[in-house]
Amino acid sequence: MRSPVVFLAMIAALAASPLAAREAVREVAVMTADPDGPGSERFLGDRAPVPEAPIPQGALIPQGIARYGPFRVLDAGHAALVDVTDSASPARFAAMLRDFPGIGEIAMIDCPGTEDDLANLTIGRMIRARGLATRVPAGGSVRSGAVELFLAGARRYAEPGAEFAVHAWMDDTGHEASDYAESDPANAKYLAYYRQMGMSPIEARAFYAMTNSAPFASARWFGAGVMAMWVRLDDRPAG
């Protein structure tokens, strides 16, 4: 079993404005571990400017009417994700859906990623099986392992001003995804997941390659327009 790798990395984000240029270098907590085993951590702990468009300072984090770990119930039909997922999150997510069976949408407000990759993928499959929609509001931030949860939505909405971030994983030997064969379980589980989320084999490989195009010590940041080039985004219903 490869042990967790934890360190702080400095990333330089492309600037879209003078303000963004002054904020271009951010200290980002990047945490990961063996992407093949339980307890893997993969999240980005800070935010960066997105070159596609100016980004609001962040969506307001709602208090909600009930909390289930990183999930908050907003009302009978809506919940929000506001923190990292972990090994306890699938059970908490299931409990939320049991107590509030009318929930049909997950708003992704501030989502750094996950402390347990396998548990995170389990939640994604639960989202898809339940037919829930995922939505990133203006100022919402979906990073690292949380991107898999956004992809899980039966319908996906990303408002202008939403941001996403992806990066490669790395094990404690210094190897990243590209150092392993595509058929290696460490890579194959992501390709299988993307196919379960509706991608063709070609689309799954292309999207996974894109996520790994930013090395572990960095991150690739982009907005809703770029995400729409990779996966289908739905139009928000009127009214």
Automatic annotation (TrEMBL):
Which UniProt keywords are given for this protein, alphabetically ordered? Hydrolase, Signal
Q: Name one GO molecular function term.
A: hydrolase activity
Q: Does the keyword Signal apply?
A: yes
- Per the record, the domain of life is Bacteria
Q: Which residues form a coiled coil?
A: none
User: Where in the sequence is the signal peptide annotated?
Assistant: 1-20
**This protein's name:** Alpha/beta hydrolase
